[in-house]
Design brief:
Strand 2, helix 3 and strand 3 form a beta-alpha-beta unit. The chain is of the alpha/beta class. The chain has a 5-stranded parallel sheet with strand order 1-2-3-4-5, with helices on both faces. The longest helix is centred in the N-terminal third of the chain and has 14 residues, at 34-47. The protein has helices at 23-28, 34-47, 67-76, 144-156, 160-170, and strands at 7-11, 59-65, 82-89, 102-107, 124-126. It is built from 5 helices and 5 strands. Helix content is 29%, strand content 16%.
Length: 186
């Protein structure tokens, strides 16, 4: 809305061709496919007219689901980009949140996958008013409607602490151009 170019980098979960279940083990301890992931981000920046090694660096938000949320946390801790916001959903927390970065970790009640991480955080928003937690099973972790509901609940929240996080995310709204990962099949 203010005419600045910003980037949103989205990381898929385990179900995509590049994310096999066994890679969760490496991602869980921060051993993600660093060269591939940073190379794709650098390529998208170049395609958009930005030098990934140049200055000033554009604002960037990292968004990741499940295994992708672990990769987003790993990219944040590379300190390579000007990351202002991080949103994970259904993701184990493998690093402490970084001061000065607007961070929110969305979790559905009853989803045990995010609880497999070991990093403490205060930036967790956990709810899903549309899912009976007693009926939640591992298969629901990948059900898009579950986290669509959690995201909508977060967006609708009037909690003052969450409103500040929502406001920070607004700067990423506006016209968009998409660059797709060839491994993602689109």
């Amino acid at each position: 809305p203010d005419g600045k170019t910003r980037f949103i980098v989205y990381f898929d979960g385990t179900a995509t061709p590049r994310h096999e279940w066994w890679r969760n083990i490496g991602d869980r301890v921060g051993l993600y496919d660093k060269d591939y992931v940073l190379g794709r981000i650098d390529s998208a920046l170049r395609e958009s007219g930005y030098d990934p090694d140049g200055n000033p660096k554009p604002d960037m938000m990292l968004v990741g689901f499940s295994q992708g949320g672990m990769e987003a946390q790993s990219v944040l801790h590379e300190n390579r980009y000007h990351i202002t916001d991080v949103v994970t959903y259904g993701a184990p927390l493998i690093y402490d949140d970084k001061p000065g970065i607007n961070t929110i970790h969305l979790r559905a009640d009853g989803d045990n996958v995010p609880g497999t991480g070991n990093a403490p955080t205060t930036n967790v928003y956990q709810t899903d008013p549309h899912t009976d937690a007693s009926q939640f099973i591992l298969g629901k972790h990948g059900d898009p409607s579950v986290y669509t509901n959690v995201g909508q609940s977060f967006d609708d929240s009037k909690d003052p602490a969450l409103v500040e996080k929502q406001k920070s995310l607004e700067k990423f709204q506006g016209a968009s151009v998409e660059v797709h990962d060839p491994y993602a099949g689109s």
